[in-house]
Amino acid sequence: MKQIINKKILFIFLLTIVLGWGAFLSLNAADTALVGDNLGLSGKLGELIAKTPKCIGEAANGCINPDAPRGYLGIPGAPSPNLILGFLWAIWVGWIFSTVGAFGGIMAGVGHITIFGLANYAKSFKKTNVALNKFLTDTIRVSNMFLVGLSGGVSSWNYWKMKRIVAPLAIAMAIGAVGGAVGIAELTAGKISLKSYIGYFGLAVFAVAGFMWYGTTAKARSKNKAAKEAAKRFEESAKKEGAKSEGVKLIKFTLNECIFSFLGVEFKFSPILAALGGFCIAIIAVFLGIGGGFLLVPFMTDIVRLPMFIVAGTSAFIVLIKMIVGIFTYIVLKGATVYWPLIGAELIGIFIGSMIGPRTQKYIPDIWLKRLFVVLAIYVGLRYTSKGFLGYSIVPPY
Fold it and tell me: How many CB atoms lie within 10 A of CB 358?
């Protein structure tokens, strides 16, 4: 009798385990049910949406609710960026890039990553659909490129009219930049998680802070004094020779050496060195989705040793070419896309900001402007580096 009771208890115990395990599997299967449809979204995005878990019950993170209002990229339940805020933020981005020749890509990234909430949204798919997480990361990078590219285009047009772009140098660096831009896009498109991108983005911001801080030191300022003295000589030379419209003139061009004159003063550089520099700078810039002006300017002033008169316009021209190549590679070859309503509003703001910057720059002391940006860059760098590599921000907002 006792044995029969024990067998019944054992049977009930085993039956409970089997039924419980079955219920767990059924519940888990329901939680991982996929959308199974592209929801009218074309291309690679539609394919990724179909493979994303469908929201069940109150779940909202890492899943898609087909019935939710459509937001970013037309995805149901995604954040819906405020277009007016995007327009105003882009004016700030265009103004800062055209004023200091750098920080435009960084500020564009801050807007897309934090202000519009795209980073947190992409991060929610980290465990449920890694491919969608990386796709959304690429859309942030390409969106940054659109903003910096237009600002570079506006600046290039203005400097081109003033004949202050060194075309041979820009072409040499652009050739190297095309190789670097295509290569890094081929290697990293669809492979970089949002967490890694934010971490590297933060490190780049620290590099910008270091570059700007160096510009405020006595050593750097002594170089600036020399540059100002050179500028004075150029202006006096132009007045004496009546050659205000002379601009840059090519004298000699070989693969080893290029000689040109600006207002009668000769300069020379190595096209091979310039192409190598463009290649290395493009790798960093396109990986982060920024223009790389903070690297181009010191390369041309400290290594190629050109005056600032012709560096700013040449830098803007190279940035423009890099951004065109980067955008083409990501969108045409890798299937990335952008949210056109937001990009359209931002491009209008970028144009306005890029036109305002050169006209207000002269009223702001350069050194105080740089020190303000150093503080801002350190804060932004701390926030993004800690979020990227530690998983949380060590500075507010946490």
Answer: 16
